[in-house]
């Protein structure tokens, strides 16, 4: 007497052997990947914990002590408007009802917060129409806050993707951008020239009247009277910024900053590099 199901048995056995072989082959890889992920997770937790402890126990620097954080009062975060490598930007409301932008730096980007806060403490920066208006800075928990004016249109990059501009509006935006760059690059009473080093359309904000202002100075470099300091700061930053820094440094040593040709060369460099 024959059994109907007997011919299926070899095929089933072969399928199970193949499946078992595949599973046994993948098991070492899965275990290895799990161990690597676990080690990375433990290392990251310890790294973040050490950074928080360092930020909490490190003595305040002069830049922090000079911050007018006591005058800010309570700030209510409303919604996230943008996020980048140095943190996220919130639309927020102050206790008097005014709307501001709050850029929140994580503990690992404390130096970028200090650099940007230090830039806003330079003479004449607060009165420049081509620079984003600074409101204040403070440390909240383990994060660092930078409070500035809020502009509903957002960055130039987002505005041009969303809206169509006329030739007159385009010239207005371009002219105000040039005014901001000229202010950065030109030394004036106690204000040294400054290289932005991250100038692009995402770091230019559009006001309600369609004039532009420059923002995001976390990589800014103050070109003071001591060239050795410039070279020291350059080595601490990424290689992709070197070409712009080198140009500004060479122009600073070889060309008179007061000349119109010098300003044209600097504006041309920032346009070409992006």
Shape, principal axes of CA atoms: elongated
How many DSSP helices? 8
- Describe the largest sheet: 5 strands, antiparallel
Radius of gyration: 27 Å
The oligomeric status of these chains comes to: single chain
Poorly predicted tracts of residues: 58-70, 225-263
> What would you give as the CATH superfamily of the largest domain?
Transferase(Phosphotransferase) domain 1
Rounded mean pLDDT score:
76
Lateral arrangement of strands in the main beta sheet: 1-2-3-5-4
Instruction: Kindly provide the name of the CATH class of the largest domain.
Output: Mainly Alpha
Strand runs, count: 9
**Helicity level, as a percent range?**
40-55%
Gap between N and C termini: 83 Å
What do you see in this structure?
With 274 residues, the chain is of the alpha+beta class. It folds into three domains: 8-58; 62-149, Phosphorylase Kinase, domain 1 (2-Layer Sandwich), CATH 3.30.200; 156-273, Transferase(Phosphotransferase) domain 1 (Transferase(Phosphotransferase), domain 1, Orthogonal Bundle), CATH 1.10.510.10. It contains eight helices and nine strands. The protein has helices spanning 8-57, 62-65, 110-120, 156-162, 167-185, 227-234, 242-254, 260-273, and strands at 75-84, 87-94, 99-105, 134-140, 143-149, 194-195, 204-206, 212-214, 221-222. The chain has a five-stranded antiparallel sheet, covered by helices on one side. Strand 2 (87-94) and strand 3 form a beta hairpin. Helix 7 runs antiparallel to helix 8. It is elongated. Mean pLDDT is 76; it is low at 58-70 and 225-263.
């Amino acid at each position: 007497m024959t059994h109907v199901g007997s011919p299926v048995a070899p095929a089933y056995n072969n399928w199970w052997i193949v499946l078992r072989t595949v599973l046994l082959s993948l098991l070492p890889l899965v275990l290895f990947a799990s161990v690597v992920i676990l080690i990375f997770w433990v290392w990251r937790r310890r790294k973040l914990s050490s950074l928080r402890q360092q930020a909490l126990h490190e003595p305040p620097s002069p830049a922090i002590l000079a911050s007018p954080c006591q005058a800010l009062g309570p700030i209510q975060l409303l919604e996230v408007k943008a996020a980048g490598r140095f943190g996220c930007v919130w639309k927020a409301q102050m206790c008097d009802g005014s709307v501001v932008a709050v850029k929140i730096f994580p503990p690992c980007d404390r130096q970028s917060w200090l650099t940007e806060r230090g830039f806003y403490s330079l003479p004449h920066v607060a009165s420049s129409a081509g620079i984003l208006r600074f409101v204040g800075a403070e440390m909240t928990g383990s994060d660092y806050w930078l409070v500035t004016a809020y502009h509903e249109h957002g960055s130039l990059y987002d505005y041009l993707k969303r809206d169509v501009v006329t030739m007159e509006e385009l010239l207005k935006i371009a002219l105000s951008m040039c005014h901001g760059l000229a202010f950065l690059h030109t030394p004036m009473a106690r204000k040294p020239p400054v290289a932005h080093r991250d100038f692009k359309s995402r770091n230019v904000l559009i006001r309600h009247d369609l004039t532009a202002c420059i923002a995001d100075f976390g990589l800014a470099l103050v070109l003071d009277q001591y060239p050795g300091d410039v070279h020291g700061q350059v080595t601490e930053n990424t290689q992709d910024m070197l070409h712009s820094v080198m140009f500004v440094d060479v122009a600073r040593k070889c060309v008179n900053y007061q000349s119109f040709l010098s300003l044209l060369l600097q504006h041309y460099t920032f346009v070409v590099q992006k």
